Amino acid sequence: MSTAAPVEILDDSVVAISSRQISSAMGAEQAILQLDSGKYFGLNPVGARVWQLAAEPRKVSEILATLLAEYEVPADRCRADLLALLQKLQAAGLVEVRRE
Amino acid sequence: MSSFSTYGLYGLCIRSELPLTAPPAPESSVADLTVQCGEELSATAAPPAGEVWAKADFGNGFGIQLTRTDAGWSLFYPQTGEFRLSADLRFATAHALPGKAAVLPLLLLGSVPAWWLNLRGEAVLHASAVTLGGEALAVIGASGMGKSTLATLLCSSGAGLVSDDVLRLQPAGGDFLCHWGTGELRLRPNALSLTELFSPASASRSADGRTTLLLAANETALPRLRAILIPQPSRVQTTVSVERLSAVDASFHLNGYARVYGWQVDAPLRRQFELFARLAQAVPVLRVAVPWGPPFAPELGDQLLLATGFPRPSLRATT
């Protein structure tokens, strides 16, 4: 797994799922195996939608806009939850983050 | 003078100089793997040089290392010995550490074919399985979680044994078929009372001191896997209760109970993940709380079958 320090995730950060994982959509959920740690992760339907959106490098602000268009949720809460999820995925070696 | 016998195990034909407690292969079978006895290892033997493909530590000095060598493959068991396989996986020599020759056949009955199948691109569950009327129930779990005990209880209720400890699955359309194992169950000391449910002629002792029960099914076609059970032995529970896992949770458990693990390379892990993801979506995976013994209630096998959707015993008797 990458030992690089976590990158702060901001609205204009670009996120993309790591090549060091394998995943499978299961209904609306997502199962993921991180190949270096051997750890297994499951994402609920909203998390799975974020995973799907991050399949291609994409700005956090774009992902947030898509979620706000698809789910009835206050923007502040959606943004906080999205950043928290992305930070967890980054810490697990499942997404890579870079600044534009 | 060497003497080889040919065995049918997990859908493979194994021609072996090591004697195995396994059924014979059909006469026309061509050997998938031929195993010859090799020279004894020194007491200080170590795994060979090469690329380590997998390494697992089971504790107390037990473990396994799979190494890609110049000559082929090595499966090195630090407490037992080594199997050296040709690059095409068709031939192997078995090498015991001093005093461990009697244990090598046990490895050839379980661990070695499991690794062999993985190297051939398959994934194998750490499971015992039984069949009733052409449909199979698998019980997955780590060592000591109750796989063999539950399989024994199910056999006491009329099921036949498919396999113990190693379950090779064959995708077939949207289903998964189960390959036959040795026909024997190996019991732990806390489950020895279960031997009383069967004829004394069924029981014997294995080289590692476990009691074995011969419970082979009277079926030949590969049974279709109907459900997978994850046992949760309970000293508090008084009845069997079943909870179906979501596909994601089921996939998590299946990956956790692969028969071989410790991969250091990606390809087998990817294959295993993909196969178990398909399996988790095709076959119900059930967490089963089971009143645990000893003593075990005699009706526990029937309760398990009913809880997993098999007909009542009275109906089974008439079909």
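The radius of gyration of chain B is 19 Å.
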